[in-house]
Known about the structure:
The protein is an alpha+beta fold and about 550 residues long. The protein has helices at about 5-10, 35-45, 50-60, 75-80, 90-115, 140-150, 165-180, 205-215, 270-285, 305-315, 325-335, 340-355, 390, 400-405, 415-425, 430-445, 455-465, 515-525; strands at about 20-25, 30, 65-70, 125-130, 155-160, 185-190, 220-225, 235-240, 245, 255-260, 260-265, 300, 365-375, 380-385, 450-455, 485-490, 530-535. Residues about 395-405 and about 470-475 have low confidence and may be disordered.
Amino acid sequence: MVTVDEIRKAQRADGPATVMAIGTATPPQCYAQNTYPDYYFRITNSEHKTELKQKFKSMCANSTIKKRYMHLTEEILKENPNMCEHLAPSLDARQDMVIVEVPKLGKEAAIKAIKEWGQPKSKITHLIFCTISGVDMPGADYQLTTLLGLRPSVKRIMMYQHGCFAGATVLRLAKDLAENNKGARVLVVCSEITAITFRGPSETHFGSLIGEVLFGDGAAALIVGSDLVPGVEKPIFELVSVAQTILPGSEGSIEGHLGEAGLVLHLLKNVAELISHNIEDSLVEAFKPLGISDWNSIFWIAHPGGPTILDQVELKLGLKPVKLWAARHVLSEYGNMSSAGVLFILDEMRKKALENGLKTTGDGLDWGVLFGFGPGLTVETQPLISPLILIVLSETFLTKITATSSDFNIIEAIVANIQHAFTHDKLTSRQLVDFYLDRVKTFNPLLQSLLEANPDARDQADEDDKQREVPFRGGRSVGQVHDFPMLLKDNIATNDKLNTTARSYALLGSKVPRDAGMVKRLRTAGVVIFGKASLTEW
Length: 538
């Protein structure tokens, strides 16, 4: 008989919650920010408001946004003229759009995340769906479950109208689910379209006007889980801890109210000041237990709420200009996508780290912070860990070997597994040598552990493959390590094209008279010596 405590312990994962895949999507319609004012005032029949249009043009020019993607097209807006007025009744038309388009856009992002994850969608156990759009029952979580063909038993959480801080909230929930449900794989989807907020301009409504300057459409999806399957699932970011707070004196600074005119935004002009004056308190609360107080020593995933907010946070914390590059890039290319924004930034940062050959997914740094802010004024702060790029890349190098055999994983294989693969025609010596040399080519610039590769290694592997035949076809018997690639330390003599220097430049290019005794025995056993490694630090 087991106790309740034993049952609870068995239900919990051993490792931390980890983001394993990210997918993003946008509608096809793209609007350039420099031409948007003319389009916006024309489609809303507001061209007579010349002073307001000039103000709007100036706001767009100062937004640092280059383009935004939106579901709403000119054709759609002409069919729904009430949406183009400032506060005309239009909720039914808006709801008819969002209940279809929000799950559809979320599906596009989810498919990309599931593909990167590399596991069948039947292994998804939980779904978190988030959108600022209006409530509908059954909700967007149900619609997405149907669109993706997920198991009906998937446990769903639907989050409506949390606003811009919800990109951090969904990660908090995913962390709790992954770490407290052993084997859980959580699909997280944030899908936002501006059909719920779009409206014509008003001289007296600053909140709506700034929304038309900043907001764009986008969806992002993540797969989150603990205790990753080695060689199949890869870590992108680890979720360490979470903190949420309501900023003092912030009542009424960011609000959104759903009514007959859709979701009407209310913003005060002191939002940037409130956030910048309080952000360090949130950081200290989150990072003091970790012993981190230098905000330039971490990477930043900051909600791209607008350039003024980013500028004031940067100034208040003394951040170097490069620290908020990812937030500024996403703001420039997509605008403010509400809850999806920080997830786009996660994706952008890990992609650039791979492209630039950095050691970790988080700008080459180990620790980072994700923070979101929105109605309340609510701030969520989350410390993150970025794993080494070599861990992230590991599944890339399963190459042809795993492609030819679904039950053989070279990353986890031991000697017996490899010998079994040899004898059952699932692996050749050349494939194995190519695999190791490819890994060396990728990881050695970071690790600096291999001094040189044997230029004859592939030729030796080809020769070994010719010799390796099953006994009943007349082939000779081979030993347990025949065809195995092996690295030697640089102080072990090899009479071949490899140098033996013992870390001395004076011996570079010298020729040893014969193989060391160890090397002779290894060659007799059929080992492929594929390079020389650096020595231990003395």
